[in-house]
Write a sequence for this structure.
């Protein structure tokens, strides 16, 4: 039952972040866009990429709070925290696209299981 709830929550986040063809992206503040960019690049920015995969979580968790500037970014992290694997990666990737980023390295890592979840 928990898995179904998580999947539905993940799909809700992803659906909420999707936009139809021909629509314009919702306006987001530049600080929030930069926070999502920081989140997407957290493995490299935190130095976790220099650590074995099993030791990355602490480096990432320590780095993020001091480097995210907006409450919206912190709230977004809380919203996707219950998700894992593909639903979490898809939600982050959708948010990255929504704010205008072409790719999100952390979403790719979550898909392969190499980063903190």
């Amino acid at each position: 039952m928990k898995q179904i709830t998580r999947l539905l929550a993940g799909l809700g986040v992803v659906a909420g972040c999707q936009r139809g063809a021909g629509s314009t992206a919702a306006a987001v503040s530049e600080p929030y866009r930069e926070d999502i960019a920081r989140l997407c690049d957290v493995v490299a920015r935190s130095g976790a990429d220099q650590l074995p995969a099993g030791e990355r979580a602490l480096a990432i968790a320590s780095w993020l709070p001091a480097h995210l500037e907006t409450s919206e970014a912190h709230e977004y992290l809380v919203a996707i925290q219950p998700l894992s694997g593909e639903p979490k990666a898809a939600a982050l990737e959708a948010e990255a696209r929504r704010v205008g980023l072409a790719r999100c390295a952390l979403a790719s890592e979550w898909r392969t299981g190499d980063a903190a979840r």
Residues 51 and 97 are 28 Å apart (CA to CA).
